[in-house]
Amino acid sequence: MFSTHTARRFALLLLTTSLAACGGGDSGTQPPPTPPGFSVVLSGTTLSVVQEGTSTLTATIGRTGSFAGAVNLSVTGAPAGVDATFAPASVSSATTSSTLSVTAAPNAAPGTYTLTVRGQATGLTDQTGTITLTVTARPATSLTLAPAAASAAST
């Protein structure tokens, strides 16, 4: 029979051998799990629209870790006379993108503006991006009649 002391030494030797065979236990070589999160990637950072016109770009949502929730998209910074909206405004886990439509009214002031796109999801840090928007004046239209003079006969 083994003494208690010998049995303990044998058990310790067996445990040490088992750990060595398994790579020494948790050596920290496994990467940590990816934390839940998301990103908003815009298809462009500049957008031009003519008065009375519409331009679009796409926002693509990337999800990381265990995050599978909805991302709500919004835009701020549009000047008076410019409407900027996402469709859909809430990107569910079954969807990965949304279309931003920017429409300029006839009275929208021409110029360059900075729009801020914001993605929001419950419990996660907001993600933002910027777009440089250029609004241009609608080209003037003119009407020319030819010939310059006309005559009509009476009956």
SSE layout:
Elements: H1 4-21, E1 37-42, E2 46-50, E3 54-64, E4 71-76, E5 82-87, E6 90-91, E7 97-104, E8 111-120, E9 127-136
Parallel strand pairs: 2-9
Antiparallel strand pairs: 1-3, 3-7, 4-6, 4-8, 5-7, 8-9
Tell me the number of strands.
Answer: 9
Give the CATH superfamily of the domain at 37-136: Immunoglobulins
Give the class from helix and strand content and strand pairing: mainly beta
Q: How large is the share of residues in beta strands?
A: 35-45%
The whole-angstrom Rg is 33 Å
**Proportion of helical residues:** 10-25%
SSE order, one letter for each helix or strand: HEEEEEEEEE
Distance between the terminal alpha carbons, to the nearest Å?
A: 139 Å
- How is the CATH topology of the domain at 37-136 named? Immunoglobulin-like
Report on the biggest sheet.
5 strands, mixed
Number of separate helices: 1
Low-confidence stretches: 10-21
CATH architecture of the domain at 37-136: Sandwich
